[in-house]
Amino acid sequence: MTIPLPAGSVNPWAAVGMIAAIVLASTTGEVLTAAAMKSIGDLDEIRARAGMRGAIRAVITCPLFFAGVGFLALAFFSLLFALNHLDLSLVAPAAASLTLVTNAVAGKLFLHENVDRRRWTAAALVCVGVYLLAH
What we know:
Blueprint: H1 12-40, H2 43-60, H3 63-85, H4 88-110, H5 117-134
């Protein structure tokens, strides 16, 4: 697999590592944030019962929420680092597409979500698209 890189730039394995860091940090952050929101419960019900301050308090007192936000920040800074070394036309589509795939897998494994055949098909097609993008 060859990855198009700027002239005289990063080796392909470093590019794969940068994109993998973005994808893993983003997926971890999104799974932790989703788990936090599921553990908190319906924010509309909390707001109706305890007001807006109660809803905010429910979110900011959840450690999973801050862990998720931390990983999402790490994903953002990993993206900035990758964009400093690689072409946007490679990094953005590859990271976004592969994150879609890893989110489907993580949602099924960790959050026990129902990922139907249509989503698995879409994930497979995304993988094909990333492969074509890299060649």
